[in-house]
Amino acid sequence: MTDSKRRRGLMAASALLGGVLVLSACSGGNENPKGESDGGSTSQAKVDEAAAKKTSEAQIRITPKDGSDNASINSAATVTVTKGTLTEVAMKTTTGTVVPGQISADKKSWKPTGQLERATGYKIAATAKDSAGRAAHENASFTTVSPANSFIGNFTPEDGSTVGVGMPVSINFDKAITNKADVQKAITVSSSSGQEVVGHWFNANRLDFRPEQYWQGNSTVTLKLNLDGVEGASGVYGVQQKTVTFKIGRNQVSIVDAKTKTMKVTQDGKTVKTIPISAGAPENTTYEGQMVISEKFKETRMDGASVGFTKEDGKGEYDIKDVPHAMRLSTSGTFIHGNYWGAKSIFGSVNTSHGCVGLSDTKGANDPNTAGAWFFNNSMVGDVVVVQNTGDKTIAPDNGLNGWNMDWTAWKAGSSA
Fold this sequence. Notes:
The protein is mainly β. The protein has five helices and 28 strands. It has helices spanning about 5-25, 40-55, 180-185, 370-375, 410-415, and strands spanning about 60-65, 70, 80, 85-95, 100-105, 110, 120-130, 135-145, 150, 155, 160-165, 170-175, 185-190, 195-200, 205-210, 220-225, 230-235, 235-240, 240-250, 250-255, 260-265, 270-275, 290, 295-305, 320-330, 335-340, 355-360, 385-390. The strands form seven sheets. The chain has a five-stranded mixed beta sheet, with no helix packed on it. It has a four-stranded antiparallel beta sheet with strand order 1-3-6-5, with no helix packed on it. A four-stranded mixed beta sheet has the order 2-8-7-4, with no helix packed on it. A hairpin with a 2-residue loop joins strand 21 and strand 22.
């Protein structure tokens, strides 16, 4: 081969080799000449993959959501988990007070064991693990509804109590209710007797429930308040979630006749005792109508000034500090009570009181043999006392627990259901 041919062959081979080198450089512009050019992206992918493998599959959910305000004090605080189980939940107020709570048996949920406080900030920290034992964490802070933006209903009778057949369910709200239909819809009252029970609004703050006739003796009544989150007025929400049950006792109705000056005590329609009484004097007659005993006091003070009986010197026309065996029949001050200061001869013969119904009694309320003591010991809150022949008007249905003085049609007309 001539030198010129050899040079041309070497140049071609060199060009070919150079082309290969150029192609290699273009296909891996970020690579280094030592073959480690892929290490950056490969190593990062391996780190991401390893991190993903270490992340727990457990998904924790806290309600209310972080940053919430106006949260419920009953059912808002809950922690749940999917694809895992809860291992620890800690709840505190923003001032550091620990809130007790309990994780469910299956470790899928947690909730406080007591009711929360209104207008209070809370913090929840939760930890869960998945099937591989990998931990997940979640935190949330929220504030419960304030008193100004919430309402409650104070109700009677009490849970677990036993009351007479005339006892209505009476609910007094601490805020005026404008969305009456929504509030009444969230309240149910039922009886084991099957009696129809209807609510009646006396005003924006009071809602009573009763059947058409007195409750059946020895039945059970259930009140359910599902008011949590119900808007009672613009921007004002209910906070109660409660079930109340109470028993109805024997059927006792006592009939006071101011004309004969006697009271017949009946049970299941049968007279069990007749008691001489002294009702309101002609100038201070006793209300007529069906009245329900709402309170009982072994002894109490009765001051005439508190119910409008005053002398010219501004003092009460009477002030007795130890009235025995007193039972309230109206908000305005009508009682049936023992009387130790009057002559024994007045009972059954003359009406002398300022509007109450008096029974013979002794000072100190410790003599069980008096008429006042007997009636007190054989009566319970919710028993009915019917007063007749006094010459006065029928007591207003909302003066005490005395809705029985409204006929059924009018009662139902006051329902917002």
